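User: quick one
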Amino acid sequence: SQQGEEDPQALSIQEGENATMNCSYKTSINNLQWYRQNSGRGLVHLILIRSNEREKHSGRLRVTLDTSKKSSSLLITASRAADTASYFCATGGTSGTYKYIFGTGTRLKVLA
Amino acid sequence: EAGVVQSPRYKIIEKKQPVAFWCNPISGHNTLYWYRQNLGQGPELLIRYENEEAVDDSQLPKDRFSAERLKGVDSTLKIQPAELGDSAVYLCASSLGNRGVADTQYFGPGTRLTVL
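Assistant: Done. Structure below.
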């Protein structure tokens, strides 16, 4: 079973626009990570946010975490055609070693 | 630094045949994961190793799936016999495996299995 649920399932925007995707989860977490997957490729780690953090930035990426609502959002600013991919959130549990549970993904298409 | 290596990249077999996937993790990574990813879905964990020990195999269908990680480095995932529903991408990932520290996973390109 998958803990994370991304929303929307699919998103299509024009190059230069911002893209926002959301992740909701069910149980307490230690950290949450976002990954990108290009078609036919493996997943690439984008950013990690810990449960005691509320916001993190990395280049054009901004991630927020609201543990009270059990949700996270990923914002990609000034999107490019190369950002076209599927984006997954993965939640890490609160036990000593980490088992990550992936969501269902948001398929982002950036039109040139 | 070399990434996670998987082979083969593609495999087509008939149902009831056996199949094996191989993974070479990043050097120095203690934790190794096998995931299955169905079309349009996120990866689902099959088994997680810390060094040679399988610490989480609760999602592994043990009647037909088996895995091993020799000497805590390379790993092999086997299916015998394969069923139509096993068609998916099988992903291997590795991480440093530092206990108590949030761990970034590094993924291989995956093996796309088609069972006919």
